[in-house]
Amino acid sequence: MSPAMMKMWVSFLAMGMMFLSAVFIYLSRYKFKKKLFRVITAFVAYGLMIYAGIIMILIVFSGPTPD
């Protein structure tokens, strides 16, 4: 697999993690009533969002790949 394709799949993974974090934040704020579930889902969501953001920054600032 070429480096460009690998970067594409890694960026798709990061976008999926951002989507999951949005779902987890929604569940944490509006659906869960127990404090423990709310804290756990919020913690996982913010962790996923931070990790996905770091991945996206690394992908963008690594620049274009050579042909």
TrEMBL record:
Ranges annotated as spanning the membrane: 6-27, 39-61
- Keyword Transmembrane helix annotated: yes
- The domain of life is Bacteria
Keyword field? Membrane, Transmembrane, Transmembrane helix
Q: State the name under which the record lists this protein.
A: DUF2768 domain-containing protein
Q: State the taxonomy lineage.
A: Bacteria, Bacillati, Bacillota, Bacilli, Bacillales
